[in-house]
Amino acid sequence: MITLHSLTNSHRTSPNVQRVGRGVGSGRGKTSCRGHKGDKSRSGYKRRYGKEGGQLPMYRKLPTRGFSHLGFRKEPFSINLSLIEELFEDGETVNIDTLMDKGFSFRKLQHGIKILAVGELTKKVVIEASGISKNAIKKLEEKKIEFKLV
Fold first, then answer.
1. Residues 150 and 132: beta-carbon distance below 8 Å
2. Which of 68, 84, 89, 106 lies at a 20 to 30 A Cα distance from 120?
3. 3-class SS string, 42-111
4. Which of helix, strand or coil describes residue 137?
């Protein structure tokens, strides 16, 4: 049973925050715990976190202006089924060599070909590509058009 004399204060008050710079009598006056002179005593000083005790800090190892791998990305040349329909006849093979014969530059084709599902393909062609989208695979399988990944 809880009685009045057995109750304890469960609420703890937060400790008082020590205010600095409020006179000599406070014990935290004059230099306000900053010591004398030097960078750390000045206003506007910012500590550089990440000092690693003699080892070159991480913030000095990282490039300052940023770096991206996008310049080194090798994207395949995307070609739609509708363009294959326009350019190729029945029985032809769609690959890098035949596309170069049709007038595409090697620079565009050097990282491979990806077939996209835009448009319809009615001609029976053989497709050799480095990538084919899922929707394009569905369309090619419906029309029973031969394809292989190279």
1. no
2. 106
3. CCCCCCCCCCECCECCHHHHCCCCCCCHHHHCCCCEEEEHHHHHHHCCCCCEECHHHHHHCCCCHHHHCC
4. helix
How far is Cα 48 from Cα 64, in angstroms, rounded to an integer?
15
Determine contact, residues 124/90, Cβ cutoff 8 Å.
yes
Give pLDDT tens digits along the chain (150 positions): 789 988 888 887 878 888 899 999 988 999 998 999 998 899 998 877 888 888 998 888 887 787 788 888 899 999 999 999 999 999 999 999 999 999 999 999 999 999 999 999 999 999 999 999 999 999 999 999 999 998
pTM over 0.70: no
**Beta bridge pairs of residue 96:** none
